[in-house]
Amino acid sequence: MKSFSIKKWTSLTLFFAFVTASFSGIVLCIMPPGRIAYWLNWKLLGLGKEGWERLYLPFAIIILVLGTLHLLAYNWKLFVSYFRSRTNRKISAELYAALFFFGLVFISAVTEIPPASWILSGVDRAKDSWLSEETRPPFPMAEILSIRDISLRTGIPEERAMQKIREGGMEVKRPEQSIAFIARDNRVSAREIFLMITEGEP
User: Fold this and answer.
1) Ranges for the Flavinylation-associated cytochrome domain (predicted)?
2) Closest-CA residue to 42 (of 150, 56, 142, 52)
3) 178 exposure class (CB count in 10 Å sphere: 0-12, 13-18, 19+)
4) I want to staple 186 with a disulfide (CB 3.0 to 4.6 A). Which of 11, 12, 57, 170 is the partner?
5) Is the pTM of this model over 0.70?
6) What digits encode the pLDDT tens for the residues 135-189?
């Protein structure tokens, strides 16, 4: 039986972490803004906004730690050799090209000019595409308001609001509960709870 190879384990773990962090990072870029995600109970592959954030962070840290290990322990000599040309030992053209490319992207991102601005505007368009009159909360932080707060804002009596929720097949215990809490317990969105309360009301 061959001995366990730390180098192979590091490379394979880095690969899986890279794939996971890349995919979750893209999801975080195109997902709805927080208030819309919470209002709609938005999910992708069974994970909501907080779930994708929890998935991204540990794998990003794994890439940082194992990437550093992979470079220093297994590829340092090879990496350093890239700084100089093999023929005349002068600074390599590839290093100049890499520094130029890095500087271009860095300045582009800081000053919000192309090509970074194209990416940022694409992300903004993806997030804005979730916004509409149908998906927008009726007032700021609506999902964290309690039945009592919503009754005060809409003029719908607490008991009638709670009765409507129960008639919709949902469980609600007391008017101090937030509609986000009620929605989570009943596996629906806060928007659905709010629509149940306000349906048929003037």
Assistant:
1) 9-76
2) 52
3) buried
4) 170
5) yes
6) 788 777 777 888 888 888 888 888 888 888 888 888 888 888 888 888 888 888 8
